[in-house]
């Protein structure tokens, strides 16, 4: 591979270089995975636990099958996508013709921010550019194929950034696809087995610098390596700048998708795969990025109600993920005109309602010595080591009114058990051979603190 020089440093870096040596921030990380992987993950991310992913772009116009619509229609020529175009659009219609139809007519960033706040999420990640190559900001490196020049004629990224930062307590993050399916320069590089770096030099590097310096994302969610190694993308060089000299150097978190072979191996937090949920504790911080729509990340007009996860299923995903040390990034897909459809809004608000009661067991928690209970299924543990508290979240209310927990080691004189949202201490007894049996309060459905899962807080247990 012929390694090209990086584009000129951004203005902020030039300013830093002009400062006296004593005033400069010393570089801490070298452009090597060994050095970059040693960077501690900013603490806010571990405590946040829950974020919302937003997949929005030109693919929201056909809104059929998948956000990979262009690839499935043009490259793979899957019959149902070819037939869809034949039945709904005139001959000769090109994917680029969807661009002007991506209107975002009803996009209201403040309304989105209000819904995001109501979800209980602590961060949001917007797709600034997906594999189709359409930036949701006025990219200087994507003339006439971005949201400012075509379609909305608006800087979507800026509008949402301002609304989120001024109207919520969420951290603002951006997804960015390194490659683009049909960009001529990328296709040329791929044909040379990535010995040349025309595409990253002309597109990826300058756009990443532009995104970070302009919008200051505290989550930079990379994706889409196109089969090219991290050396082709110069990922370590960019991350060294991000961690040492960028305006978000102290707070930014990144994932593990920085080139073929880097996933679940290098970077900040691991994603390992889409919808990754191992069900056991991992030694490295990880994130479960998943979708409310079981089949697609973008909005689908052809989705049925059974295609959406229920709130019970989503709460289980959150509880299980957090118990195993991960964060949950739950995805929604707005419509072409900027509406968060009622099914997505309902799920977000339901999650927020649940977290208002049970957030103590989720936010800022740590995994406990056991992730789930051995005696009763669907019971997951978290802990607050500073306060010496253990939380047991159970997803099925027992018909008998008695809940057996096989893991906690309790003492009759010291241990106390409470139900979050109820307040009064509960009666419990030691169970044989181990654990405790808890008498739950006799509540009617209207008296329950929440509907889809309940958290017990246990004091002085081991």
TrEMBL record:
It catalyses: a neolactoside IV(2)-alpha-Fuc-nLc4Cer(d18:0) + H2O = a neolactoside nLc4Cer(d18:0) + L-fucose; a neolactoside IV(2)-alpha-Fuc-nLc4Cer(d18:1(4E)) + H2O = a neolactoside nLc4Cer(d18:1(4E)) + L-fucose; an alpha-L-fucoside + H2O = L-fucose + an alcohol. It comes from the Eukaryota. Keywords: Glycoprotein, Glycosidase, Hydrolase, Signal. Pfam families: Alpha_L_fucos, Fucosidase_C. GO terms for molecular function: alpha-L-fucosidase activity. Gene3D superfamilies: Glycosidases (3.20.20.80), Golgi alpha-mannosidase II (2.60.40.1180). The record marks 289 as: May be important for catalysis. Residues 21-360 form the Glycoside hydrolase family 29 N-terminal domain. Its EC number is 3.2.1.51. One of its GO terms (biological process) is response to bacterium. The keyword Membrane does not apply. Residues 371-459 form the Alpha-L-fucosidase C-terminal domain. PROSITE patterns: ALPHA_L_FUCOSIDASE (PS00385). GO terms for cellular component: extracellular space; lysosome. Belongs to the glycosyl hydrolase 29 family. Homotetramer. Alpha-L-fucosidase is responsible for hydrolyzing the alpha-1,6-linked fucose joined to the reducing-end N-acetylglucosamine of the carbohydrate moieties of glycoproteins. PANTHER family: ALPHA-L-FUCOSIDASE, PLASMA ALPHA-L-FUCOSIDASE. This is Alpha-L-fucosidase. It comes from Jaculus jaculus.
